[in-house]
Design brief:
three-stranded antiparallel β-sheet; 191 residues; mainly beta
Length: 191
């Protein structure tokens, strides 16, 4: 009937239908990786007659961005290259992730995310480094600011005096043993 009012309904809880317009929406944002299609029965009635139709809604996959799972703060001992790993995941099962890092003081393995110093760090010179790590799935780059705190290691002193002395006979004085210690607060004792 031309003037009849129609009312719509739908089965299940994943899809919602507007009872007066028939507009179908998802109850929650769909995730292709979890469920790629939904089926339901739509019913329309004019108050007297009722008709049902089975529907299928296919969800298309959208390339989603990766996300970091590693912490942004690292601590590494001075005088060695190892820092740690930048790690990330991507909801897309077939995604291949690639890593990069800003600056030239830190280095990252593009495929594993292993971060190292470009040269052995010295706590007495620089005690902290910052950089931007980028991970991409080839389409969607994501960045994370990282900070690497260098921990102080007690370093051995080194002699600055010659290893060989020359002394004239008949006197006690020979020379002076001298050394420096890279640790700023080090006290040296000779024996």
């Amino acid at each position: 009937d031309a003037g009849a009012t129609q009312a719509y309904s739908i089965t299940g809880t994943d899809l919602v239908i507007d009872a007066s317009t028939g507009a179908i929406t998802f109850a929650a944002n769909p995730d292709f990786e979890t469920t790629s299609s939904y089926t339901a029965t739509v019913t329309v009635t004019d108050g007297t007659n009722e008709v049902e139709q089975e529907i299928t809604v296919n969800v298309t996959d959208v390339n989603e961005s990766p996300s970091f799972t590693s912490d942004a703060l690292f601590t590494a001992a001075e005088n060695q290259l190892t820092i740690g790993d930048a790690t990330a995941t991507d909801p897309d099962a077939d995604a291949t992730l690639a890593y990069s890092i800003s600056g030239d003081e830190l280095v990252i393995d593009a495929s594993t995310g292993v971060i190292t110093f470009a040269a052995n760090p010295d706590f007495e010179t620089t005690s902290s480094y910052t950089a931007t790590v980028t991970v991409t799935d080839g389409t969607n780059p994501v960045t994370q600011e990282i900070t690497v705190t260098v921990s102080d290691v007690n370093e051995s002193p080194s002699f600055t005096s010659a290893a060989s002395f020359t002394a004239p006979e008949n006197q006690l004085a020979i020379g002076t043993a001298a050394a420096t210690d890279p640790d700023a607060d080090a006290t040296q004792e000779y024996s």
